[in-house]
Amino acid sequence: MAKVERKGTLSEQRLRTFLREMLLIRRFEEKVEERFRAGELPGFLHVAIGQEGVAVGVCQAMDDGDVFASTHRAHGHTLARGTHPNAVMAELYGKLEGCSHGYGGSMHLYDVERGNLGANAVVGGGLPAITGAALAFKLRQEPRVAVAFFGDGATNIGTFHESLNLAQLWQVPAVFVLEDNHWAESTPELQHSPIRDLSKRAEAFGMRVMKADGQDVEEVHRVAQRALKHARDGKGPVFMHVQTERLVGHYIGDPQVYRDKEQLRELQETRDPVTLLREKLGVSDEEFDEADREVQELVDASVAFAKAGTDPKPEDALKNIYA
Description:
- The structure is a single chain.
- By secondary structure, the chain is of the alpha/beta class.
- The chain has a single domain (12-309), classed as Rossmann fold.
- 44% of the residues lie in helices and 10% in strands.
- The chain is built from twelve helices and seven strands.
- The protein has helices at residues 12-37, 52-59, 75-80, 85-92, 126-139, 158-170, 189-192, 199-203, 217-232, 261-270, 273-281, 285-307; strands at 67-69, 146-151, 174-180, 183-184, 187-188, 208-213, 238-243.
- A five-stranded parallel sheet has the order 1-2-3-7-6, with helices on both faces.
- Strand 4 (183-184) and strand 5 (187-188) form a beta hairpin.
- Helix 1 (12-37) packs across helix 2 (52-59), helix 1 crosses helix 12 (285-307) and helix 5 packs parallel to helix 6 (158-170).
- It is globular, with a radius of gyration of 19 Å.
- The two termini are 38 Å apart.
- Residues 1-8 have low confidence and may be disordered.
């Protein structure tokens, strides 16, 4: 994946690269939803439509040696960090060619070569691993940063508080990225948290807080650069509070009876990060359609690759099990 400038305003070409990356994630997840509804994909799937700006903005700011842990909504982070769509789609189809060799599926995407320490179906499950990885970097005196992605619901989990407490106590090079979409599955934030500004939970540990609008990928990237530099320079961890929008249900097939339909339509029309960046750049219909065709061909090819992949053998089911 393309690197971006470390200083100053992003060039138009870099922002166009961001637009293509977000469009790739969008079309990939739309295809995943289509194939899931067709009965081709097993298990539950959770897409991050509306949150592409967070994934691209943060992941494009990371250095090659940095690592991250994701959530059950991991396709975007994985693609934005450089894993090929073929490897991600093959994993969703349970094939050996998948990035987790068919063992993990949608909620357990790994790609250690690209710093992906794994998506996690357990809410807040990646936070302790990231604190540990950051501690290792500090003890080894390596200029690397560990990044944790998590949602607002995870801020109520014990591992969230334990991880932030230790990270701040030990001053490890970690960045905790809160993708605050205001929904913990079907529970609105005001019903699961007594405070409206969740960054105050990090401030309680004395941690540095940085905020960004998750629907503005350029702003997310700029703030992520600052956060990563702060951690990499040995100044301690950063809590990055990103306000974003989940423009779909919690899982594919979620009827969203808990959500105001008119408000959702308004968000889809006014807060779509792909549309906002396209308008900001003044991308014409012709340009956009050309990029869209290229991305769609890549996504379609990933489905063909996955379907032609190798099914795991039943006797391999107990491999990599140590208990």
